[in-house]
Amino acid sequence: MNAKRPLIAVLTGAGISTDSGIPDYRGPAGLWQRDPSAQQLVTIGPYLADPEVRRRAWLMRREAGALAAEPNAGHRALVDLERSGPPVRVLTQNVDGLHQRAGLPARKVLELHGTAREVQCARCRVVGDMAEALARVDAGEPDPACRECGGILRPRTVMFGEALDPVVLRQADAIAKACDLFVAVGTSLQVHPAAVLPQIALEGGARLIVMNGEPTPFDEAADEVIREPISTALPALVRKLLTEGA
């Protein structure tokens, strides 16, 4: 009888996507450091209440160019791990969809904060394509409304002031409890409830590896802390895990 293959859970944050040209939020050069007022553009209350906030938010999305971003070596390393090694589940705080674009099966990626590749009407809940909405902004609509009901269009993400989808959160908790190795990559581990996932994994007996440019609250509890750039450090870690059989 074959032994059970160890489950690897990988929690990814903004740091894995910075080399794809998508800025992080809380790092030394992060968006909140450069422009603290930008946080209201992704906060649900001001977004729904103030047309000017929405206009600024649409301009931010257009200028960020996130939809054109390409996966980098860190994303591709996780694809290599998934294809060559033990069972892998990626829990991501990112909304850029780059794990799937790199080649990870969508069923193995849990998007904790939703996706910025789609929009949703705040009134009738119809879902649409973000690229189509941005094309309307390019065409001169500063705050495009829902074509179905005229309601406010918003990204299909979890904005500040909103709770995570409880179904998604239960799935993330179950993965953290079941995993044998938990790897936190490019995340400050300060945003709750995602920040509790490493603790759940530790309580279940999993090993913990933290890979982040800045210190995190879990560094002392981790079996290994890696400070090197993610695009080189994550491929190296994947090679090590495959060599050692995780």
TrEMBL record:
Its EC number is 2.3.1.286. InterPro entries: DHS-like_NAD/FAD-binding_dom, NAD-dep_sirtuin_deacylases, Sirtuin, Sirtuin_cat_small_dom_sf, Ssirtuin_cat_dom. The keyword Heme does not apply. It holds the Pfam family SIR2. GO terms for molecular function: histone deacetylase activity, NAD-dependent; metal ion binding; NAD+ binding. Zn(2+) binds at residues 121, 124, 146, 149. Residues 1-244 form the Deacetylase sirtuin-type domain. The active site is at residue 113. Keywords: Metal-binding, NAD, Transferase, Zinc. This is protein acetyllysine N-acetyltransferase.
